[in-house]
Automatic annotation (TrEMBL), chain A:
Pathway the protein contributes to: Lipid metabolism; sphingolipid metabolism; Sphingolipid metabolism
Cellular component, GO, one term: serine palmitoyltransferase complex
Protein localization: Endoplasmic reticulum; Membrane
Enzyme Commission number: 2.3.1.50
Keywords, alphabetical: Acyltransferase, Endoplasmic reticulum, Lipid metabolism, Membrane, Pyridoxal phosphate, Sphingolipid metabolism, Transferase, Transmembrane, Transmembrane helix
Protein name (database record): serine C-palmitoyltransferase
Organism: Arxiozyma heterogenica
Lineage, broadest ranks: Eukaryota, Fungi, Dikarya, Ascomycota, Saccharomycotina
One term of GO molecular function: serine C-palmitoyltransferase activity
From TrEMBL, chain B:
Pfam families for the chain: Aminotran_1_2
InterPro entries assigned to the protein according to its UniProt record, in alphabetical order: Aminotransferase_I/II_large, AON_synthase_class-II, PyrdxlP-dep_Trfase, PyrdxlP-dep_Trfase_major, PyrdxlP-dep_Trfase_small
Superkingdom of origin organism: Eukaryota
Protein name: serine C-palmitoyltransferase
Species annotation: Arxiozyma heterogenica
Co-factor requirement: pyridoxal 5'-phosphate
GO CC terms in record: endoplasmic reticulum; membrane
Annotated family: Belongs to the class-II pyridoxal-phosphate-dependent aminotransferase family.
Gene Ontology biological process: ceramide biosynthetic process; sphingosine biosynthetic process
Keywords (A to Z) from UniProt: Acyltransferase, Lipid metabolism, Pyridoxal phosphate, Sphingolipid metabolism, Transferase
UniProt entry tagged with the keyword Transferase: yes
Enzymatic class: transferase
Pathway: Lipid metabolism; sphingolipid metabolism; Sphingolipid metabolism
Length: 564, 568
């Protein structure tokens, strides 16, 4: 039955017909042209130096208290709501009550947070979009009903400045070399993946892309997976078992935790970025060995992320390598957010710290983010990859990566390396470095609390109160800026935040626009809480917006203004 | 202290002489009590405490003594807490710095992955046998290279692809893909919760639920990740899962992650299942739990490992009778079974919404696109959007994959010719393989495990032949491997199994070199499998192949199998 536009269900997201724009405007909407050569910044390698521990700015006490009270009210109201609702409005709570001798899908308590807290701000999540998530993202308008019980879609859209997508290098484009190559590949290879890699799913494109990635990250060999989450979730059981130990940063991504759980290995957690604690833990574990039996561990794997996606902090790679060598552990670095996005040549944390990639045993990364594709990779020495091809479940059982995605990876990688369009990759890298630093320093100077490292394209700005999250998100949407808000469980309970994801596709003027609006909204919501603890001169920062825009573009290139 | 009665403040003069108490204790005690008194009276309401203490000392000095000793013990207990850890650390030796250094120096870890050259020699041949498709997509006729381009075969008939329907290669779908890439780019650049889900994603969910007749659908990035993520989103400790004992590895992983109590029933044996469910329900009734646990029956539509089909009507009867929910992995049956490819329920003439509670499926098999999905009711789907890790914490599928899947389903809704063609081919595949076996010895060597309606034919050696030639049985393999798994061995290898795998690969090689036909082994990993399996061969047909070509090829394969088996 053909889908008729006038008969569509108003609660369904409509398919938006793409607007017919002239190609120059379309291109500009996806990737803004650089307005001045001064808005570039070439990142320098740290040349093996360690980074100082991050300085975490803290808000005044009254903010923490308000935040707790805020949660307390929400929780009390939620429980009262549930208590009365389940007794007097049974028909509305059928999903929580046993029915015909069957347990409900989830229990009252299991789903409490989702039903009573998250549901109130559901309109800030899963906003449907259409088109390319480039410099601008086209959000589909929706109207919330009955406190986000359901939404209706009038069929209109809103073009927002995109600070939400993981489009670090701006490869989310529908015009240009990458798209041309992807389309050419569709014609030649089609889209079907065939079957598992070891049975039929390997094509010469896989081989080419794997070699390119290995070359790019500086390892002997690499292998590709069609899903980034799945790369980690089905990785660790190939070589770890319950007699092995994983030492994991407390903020590691869920995919790593799932993978580790599946492997059955024992996990010990160290505090985020705490290298002293890590060393103490390693020493203790080598001495103690396995619990109960006290036999020595078969192997110890240290698991960290290159760039932590919620904090914007980097792992202390030189120190990790030192520890790993000293104690004969293995090191696994998940570069989901850092590959492509940081380092003088975009080659991730190794590139930025100036360390030899061969000092790290396993480099993992995703291709969804900087490369505008999908999936993940693992890069190691050749003998390890060969063994993993035999022992990993994914290549033997799961679908492989489809051809158009491979084409996108190959072409975007070649652009970054400089094999295609020499200079373009360089410009993208310099733009994201400048943009990230500019927004970060600008926000700090305006008086906001911002976490993370100077070069991180993830810029989390702290909101604290849960009620300020939807307020911030909604007001920014009204001002045509798409942002992502994150709260518990992805962050500690009181540290709700907004996460700006920088992109090379934004121009300096776009960031001015963002700064002006964040400034106004921050004023409105009392978000300027910076105590000066994390600023270079130790002073409370409350700059005027004009002053910030005038002076920051030059200042942000200087490392001295960034504490870490 | 109990002897010092109500007159404590005034001093020791009234103490009975029979019990000698050193005077300093008495004076200190009196002094403390006096201060306490003065202090307490100043506090509003403090005199109640004073009165209570006085009264209790007066009425029941022994109780006071017990109370005081309890308080003292409490203080002692509180202060001694750090020391208490000692007992927990009892196996933590008290070592000097030097000894610790020595231990650290002594420790020799195993290599990161198994580096034994012997193991690599036994298992590494598999790497050379991986076919690499050159200069084009995975179609019915392909150019294949193996062993680092040392072997190259052109115009090979492909009988190992899972892309059963081949609708994805139609002009209409390819145009849709190109159009979508021109409007959306390739990647979605974000997870579903953060602007990653686009209009095309939502619309594929509507299309899927319309096509399969369910309330809702949820999309996932990869088929292999769906089951572990969905099942563990709905189960916790204490929940009950009853699973078929031939489920695939993806579901085995799901059961491991589910934290629930898992029971297995004999493959497709409904009596065994009925009995097990009755027992479980009886046991549950005895335990008198405060709430009913969540209970699932887990099985597959067309089994990954054998190509068998689950008897849905009986399963539905049992699930209703025993109040279980039914979870079915339809990765291989979607797009294949039923007149329009709507899967298992259509095949048995049932409605999906009434029969299966959770369906998981793949868009990478018959649909020929990418990703996986779940089908079910609204409540279940909504909970996955927050509770299912592979959905929440992973980027959305590229727009073109979902747009093409929508297009493919649209085509299937209106035109079931490809599905019908596939049914005919499956029949030919099966019939050709089984026909006139009385005249030859095929039955002596191999058994066909798959159902006649499965487009994938699974062949394994007969137990007798395996025992004669490779000297092991399925149970022996299972026991050896699970023993090694339990011991956490880094070298999970069973030589007779390796030999049989090599023999099956020799059949694959012979078919490829002699007849230019690509079939494949089922690439099982014994290291990960937790249920009994044996090596098997897989022949699959896609609707791109003509009937004559297929029956001709199957005859050639059959002839090769016979020849190699009889000469072994």
């Amino acid at each position: 039955m053909p889908f008729k536009e006038d008969k569509r269900d108003p609660t369904h997201v409509p398919l938006i017909t793409p607007p017919n724009l002239p190609i120059e405007i379309k291109r500009e909407n996806e990737f803004g042209t650089l307005t001045s050569k001064t808005y570039l910044h070439q990142v320098k390698s740290f040349e093996g130096k360690e980074i100082p521990d991050p300085v975490i700015d803290t808000p005044p006490y009254y903010i923490s208290i308000i935040t707790y009270v805020n949660y307390l009210i929400l929780i009390i109201f939620g429980h009262v709501h549930d208590f009365l609702g389940i007794r007097f409005q049974k028909n509305k709570y059928t999903d929580l009550i046993e029915k015909d001798g069957m347990a409900p899908w989830y229990s009252v308590l299991e789903s409490f947070y989702v039903r009573r807290l998250k549901k109130r701000i559901d309109d800030c999540f899963s906003r449907p979009a259409t088109g390319v998530p480039g410099r601008f993202i086209t959000c589909i308008n929706r109207v919330s009903h009955k406190f986000n019980e359901y939404f209706t879609y009038p069929g209109t859209t809103r073009m927002c400045l995109n600070l939400s997508s993981y489009n670090y290098l701006g490869f989310a484009q529908s015009e240009g070399k990458c798209t041309d190559y992807a389309i050419k590949t569709v014609e030649k290879y089609g889209i079907n993946p065939g079957g598992p890699r070891t049975q039929i799913g390997t094509t010469d494109l896989h081989r080419e892309a794997e070699r390119l990635i290995a070359r790019f990250v500086g390892k002997e060999d690499a292998m590709l997976f069609s899903m980034g989450y799945g790369t980690n979730a089905n990785f660790f059981n190939a070589f770890l078992d319950s007699k092995c130990l994983i030492i994991s940063d407390e903020l590691n991504h869920t995919s790593i935790r799932t993978g580790v759980r599946l492997s059955g290995a024992t996990v010990r957690v160290f505090k985020h970025g705490d290298m002293k604690g890590l060393e103490k833990l390693i020493r203790e574990q080598i001495v103690l060995g396995q619990p109960k039996t006290n036999r020595p561990w078969k192997k110890i794997l240290i698991c960290v992320e290159g760039l932590f996606s919620m904090e914007g902090t980097l792992c202390n790679l030189p120190k990790l390598i030192e520890l790993k060598k000293k104690y004969k552990c293995y090191l696994y670095v998940d570069e989901a957010h850092s590959i492509g996005a940081i380092g003088p040549n975009g080659r991730g944390v190794c590139d930025l710290f100036g360390v030899d990639p061969n000092d790290i045993d396993i480099l993992m990364g995703t291709l969804t983010k900087s490369f505008g594709a999908a999936g993940g990779y693992i890069a190691c020495d050749k003998w390890i990859i060969d063994r993993l091809r035999l022992d990993l479940t994914t290549p033997n059982y799961a679908e492989p990566m489809p051809a158009p995605v491979l084409a996108q990876i190959i072409s975007s990688l070649k652009i970054i390396i400089g094999d295609i369009n020499p200079g373009e990759g360089q410009e993208r890298l310099q733009r994201i470095a400048f943009n990230s630093r500019y927004l970060r320093l600008g926000l700090q100077r305006l008086g906001f609390i911002v976490y993370g490292n100077a070069d991180s394209p993830v810029i989390p700005m702290l909101l604290y109160c849960p009620s300020k999250m939807p307020a911030f998100s909604r007001i920014m949407l009204q001002r045509n800026i798409a942002v992502v808000i994150v709260a518990y469980p992805a962050t500690p309970l009181i540290e709700s935040r907004v996460r700006f994801c920088m992109s090379a596709s934004l121009t300096k003027e776009d960031i001015d626009y963002v700064l002006r609006h964040v400034n106004e909204v921050g004023e409105m919501l009392n978000l300027k809480l910076n105590s000066g603890k994390s600023s270079w001169d130790g002073k409370v920062q409350r700059w005027d917006i004009e002053e910030v825009i005038k002076r920051t573009p030059e200042d942000c290139k200087d490392d001295k203004y960034f504490v870490c | 202290m109990n002897t010092a009665t109500n007159d404590t403040i005034t001093g020791a003069s009234v103490l009975p002489t029979s019990i000698p108490i050193p005077s300093f204790i008495v004076t200190t005690y009196s002094y403390i009590w006096y201060c306490f008194n003065v202090l307490l009276i100043k506090v509003p309401g403090g005199h109640y405490v004073v009165d209570y203490v006085k009264k209790s000392i007066n009425d029941d000095p022994y109780r006071t003594m017990i109370e005081i000793s309890l308080i003292l013990y409490g203080i002692y207990y509180y202060l001694s807490k750090p020391q208490k850890k000692k007992s927990l650390r009892s196996n933590k030796p008290d070592l000097s710095e030097q000894e610790i250094e020595l231990l650290i120096e002594e420790w020799v870890p195993e290599p990161l992955v198994n580096d034994s050259p012997l193991d690599m020699k036994k298992q590494g041949w598999r790497l050379e046998k991986i076919p690499i498709v050159l200069d084009g997509g995975i179609r019915s006729h392909i150019k294949v290279s193996r062993n680092n381009d040392n072997e190259i075969y052109d115009n090979v008939l492909n009988l190992s692809s899972n892309n059963f329907l081949n609708i994805c290669n139609s002009e209409r779908v390819i145009n849709k893909v190109k159009e979508t890439i021109k409007n959306y780019g390739v990647g979605a650049c974000g997870p579903a919760g953060f602007y990653g889900n686009q209009d095309v994603h939502y619309n594929l969910e509507y299309t899927l639920s319309r096509f399969f007749g369910t309330e809702s659908a949820v999309l996932y990035g990869q088929d292999f990740c769906v089951a572990p993520s969905v099942l563990s989103a709905f189960t916790k400790r204490g929940d009950v899962i009853v699973a078929d004992d031939q489920i695939s590895l993806s579901i085995q992983n799901a059961l491991q992650l589910s934290r629930s109590t898992v029971y297995y029933f004999e493959h497709n044996n409904m009596e065994s299942l009925d009995k097990l469910l009755s027992e479980l329900n009886a046991a549950e009734a005895r335990e008198n739990l405060p709430a009913i646990p969540r209970k699932f029956i887990v099985t597959e539509g067309i089994f990954h490992n054998s190509g068998d089909i689950a008897p849905l009507p009986d399963l539905v009867k049992l699930k209703l009778k025993h109040k279980f929910r039914l979870f079915v992995d339809e990765t291989f049956s979607i797009g294949v079974l039923g007149s329009h490819g709507r899967g298992l329920p259509e095949y048995f003439g049932l409605k999906r919404a009434d029969s299966i509670d959770v369906t998981i499926g793949s868009m990478a098999t018959a649909f020929g696109s990418s990703g996986g999905f779940t089908l079910g009711d609204h409540v279940m789907a909504y909970h996955q959007r927050i509770g299912s890790n592979a959905y929440c914490f992973s980027a959305s599928l590229p727009a073109y994959t979902v747009a093409s899947a929508s297009e493919i389903i649209d085509i299937m809704e209106n035109d079931n010719s490809e599905v019908t063609k596939l049914h005919r081919l499956s029949e030919i595949l099966h019939n050709t393989m089984t026909s006139d076996n009385e005249n030859n010895d095929l039955n002596k060597y191999v058994v066909i495990k798959s159902h006649k309606d499965s487009p994938v034919l699974h062949l394994e050696l007969t137990a007798q032949f395996r025992y004669n030639k490779f000297h092991y049985t399925k149970d022996e393999l299972y026991d050896t491997v699970s023993n090694l798994q339990k011991k956490c061995s880094s070298h999970i290898i069973f030589d007779p199994y390796e030999n049989e795998e090599k023999f099956l690969q020799a059949i694959v090689d012979e078919v490829l070199t002699k007849y230019n036909i690509l079939i494949t082994r089922n690439t099982f990993l014994v290291k990960h499998e937790t249920l009994p399996i044996v090596p098997s061969l897989k022949i699959s047909c896609t609707s791109e192949i003509s009937e004559e070509e297929l029956s001709h090829a199957v005859k050639q394969i059959k002839e090769t199998i016979l020849r190699l088996c009889s000469s072994l």
